[in-house]
């Protein structure tokens, strides 16, 4: 019997249906696995944010309780001294008021710090929303990057917290698209974004900067540490991906803006490209230099 109306033999038709079912099943399985992996990463990040918020709340609550007890004792002391008219007693009250003023100011500073930390953690939480997510890769988009950079500059200005950025670009990505097609290129972008997200620290932020460029924001990280992290990341990509990347690293300096900081990272990236690609360069504020891991650092990779 033939498969009507195409006159395909039934055994062949069944074989085709089975093959299509298998392929679609595999495709569905891959999508499901990707969703599971992404969900696990997002859950891990959410737990990290929740733990940090809990730590901030506990610290402030403990300080408030201690300060409340001190204020209570001071209030009782004022009531007792109010019944006395001796000059010595009032001098003692002035001394005690100065003593309680210092922890009050410290507590106010601590609450201000906590506010800034909560704002930073809120920015992390907002990266879960679609408005800050690149639809193709699932990492942050330019809006998410701008918010993260603004938060880091605020922390650096107020508390002198260092931070660094890395700008990565896929080597010869146009050739990949021309040779294998844009769908394959999109898959490369998705896999690379996933690898970035897996390999960076929970406190770091990954964003798609545009096209085949990605930015990594590294809070409380000096230039040297950022260079080590991103050279290891480049090596990881070289080993696990069918493409290589070039990277430029820069640390925020006094007077920097998002534009000037990313411009230095871009200058370092350009140096990495002109030096032969598949390299990481860092910009020290004056010039770009290649990043080379010491033997001890390389052995830990």
Number of folding domains?
2
- Return the CATH topology of the largest domain: Alpha-Beta Plaits
Rg on CA atoms, Å: 28 Å
* CATH architecture descriptor of the largest domain: 2-Layer Sandwich
Helix share bin: 55-70%
Elements, N to C (H/E)? EEHHHEHHEEHEHEEH
Any low-confidence stretches, pLDDT <50, length ≥5? Answer: 1-8, 10-20, 22-32
Could you say which structural class the secondary elements and strand pairing correspond to? alpha+beta
- From the N-terminal CA to the C-terminal CA, the straight-line distance is 62 Å
| Strand segment count | 8
Description:
- The chain has 301 residues and is an alpha+beta fold.
- The chain has two domains: 6-126; 136-301, Reverse transcriptase/Diguanylate cyclase domain (Alpha-Beta Plaits), CATH 3.30.70.
- Helix content is 66%, strand content 13%.
- It contains eight helices and eight strands; from the N terminus they run E-E-H-H-H-E-H-H-E-E-H-E-H-E-E-H.
- The chain has helices at residues 10-82, 87-126, 142-159, 173-180, 182-199, 223-240, 258-274, 295-300; strands spanning 2-3, 8-9, 163-170, 205-210, 213-219, 245-251, 280-283, 288-290.
- The strands form two sheets. A six-stranded mixed sheet has the order 4-5-3-6-7-8, sandwiched between helices. A two-stranded antiparallel ribbon has the order 1-2.
- Strand 1 (2-3) and strand 2 (8-9) form a beta hairpin.
- The protein is elongated and about 95 Å long.
- The chain starts with a strand and ends with a helix.
- 24% of the residues are buried.
- Mean pLDDT is 79; it is low at 1-8, 10-20 and 22-32.
